[in-house]
Amino acid sequence: MAATGTHQKVLISLLIFLFTFVVFYMYKRNNTLAPQTPQVVHIAKENNTNENYTILLIWFWPFKKKFDLNSCASKYQINGCHLTDDRNLYSKADGVLIHHRDIYDNLSNLPNLPRPFFQKWIWMLFESPQNSKKIQGLDNLFNVTMNYRRDADITVREQLQCNTKETEEPIPVKNKKTKTVCWIVSNWNENHARVKYYNILKEHIEVETFGRHFNRVLSNEGYTQTIENCKFYLSFENTLKSSDHTAIDYMTEKLYSPLRLGTVPVVLGPPRDSYERFIPRDAFIHVDDFSSPKELADYLLGINETEYHQFFNWRKHFTMTGVNFAEEHACRACQYIRERKSFQVFTNLNKWYWG
What DSSP state is assigned to residue 35? Predict the structure, then answer.
């Protein structure tokens, strides 16, 4: 009987050893083969008992410029978002942010794994249609559009916000500014409407020019000081016509920086009524208001101090809010897909944007 009991103990010990070995082997195997994900994602998924964090995968760094991936909560009060550029998290990502200007013509650098049913692809572009390549095959590929246009799913742009009470913003004094008209330009194309207009305008009024094209590149500080010292700034967008109806809502920092820095923008791009959807009609001058560049030059030279002050009445009631590209755009994209769980797809992207 004693021998039998000893054999049973040995058998039980052997079974326990084998069981322990199998458990240890499977643990090591799973941890070796499974994709390694950042610890922060595990923490977010395990510790958030109410709702999982929303994961937004940045597929391309827009223009190859990186930004802080942990800024959504601290800078924009957007909580519950985890931004990442780790493509190993593709199958777990709730959204994939894709910058149009980085897409290959044959789409070969887009994700090629099956798309999870819950995942949304966000198309992102903030250049004008005239300066962005139309790529075939994008229809029915994206779920969400992010753009400067008001009819995009996610609209991100500089804007004026109402003050809670009237403020006494200092009015820029015309006579204290050292330059009459300024223009900063790097992308020069003789076929662009802004270049054609400038070539005539400069014959009738002095235009102080800066930028790479004129071999006068400015630092950030120099940029600010230059615009502040100008009475008028040529906020000429990169469009094909002086009043381009195809450039829907396309207004860039060329407009908003002068407004913020206390200079009157002279605009060329979309028609006047497009600008008036976003800024007061008496805050800017449109080239369409004049029959020729010469007539515009005569008007600018004839504005007195009282008339000049009228361009800044908006500063009593509004504040300019900027946008931090592309950090804020990523946070807004994550916020959108976090708040909207319904199915959606954009079926006619090329027609919508390029007509």
Answer: P
